[in-house]
Amino acid sequence: MNPDLLINIARLKEAGLDLELQLGKDWFARWQAEDPDLEFAGPGSLTVQVHLERLGHEILVRGHLQGNLNLLCSRCLIRFDYPVQSDFDLLLAPESEYLTEEEEELSPADLDRDFYTGETVNLESILREQVLLTLPLKPLCAEACKGLCPRCGADLNQEPCRCPREASTSPFVTQKNIKS
Ligand SMILES: [Zn+2]
Ligand SMILES: [Zn+2]
């Protein structure tokens, strides 16, 4: 946990608090170490501007992410830099007010809520969640990426492969050949 990302709410004065953070290799490496299943798992470099402000009991967190994530192309399996630019706006409720006994079973609507616990806002988990939200479902190094040949594994962006043409290796054709 990066201590800079645990914000004591006592620091939020009238005008709020503005932070600019750099999330680099170390930040991504620590995340990966804590969460080995992390799919995108590449080093990234993000600049984050965050504004925190009290709104009654709740805390407004407004942020802007900009930079690059290093993703794996889902077609050709090459790593590429994926530019990220996104804004987020969250309202954090104090956790104690919501986790009363009657509310142990959270309804789906409640699950969308974000919380802060005690006297701190955990920007680490908020930023991880925001980074995950920026990930494309199917990362592509380029819209027109041709991917890999499913048979020989050749990178079809680099060269056409030498596999036999589709028709001659189709299992139907083969069967027919055996029978005749
Ligand atoms: Zn690709
Ligand atoms: Zn091939």
Automatic annotation (TrEMBL):
Domain of life (superkingdom): Bacteria
InterPro entries named among the record's database cross-references: YceD
Pfam families attached to this UniProt entry: YceD
Name the record gives this protein: DUF177 domain-containing protein
Source organism per UniProt: Desulfobacca acetoxidans
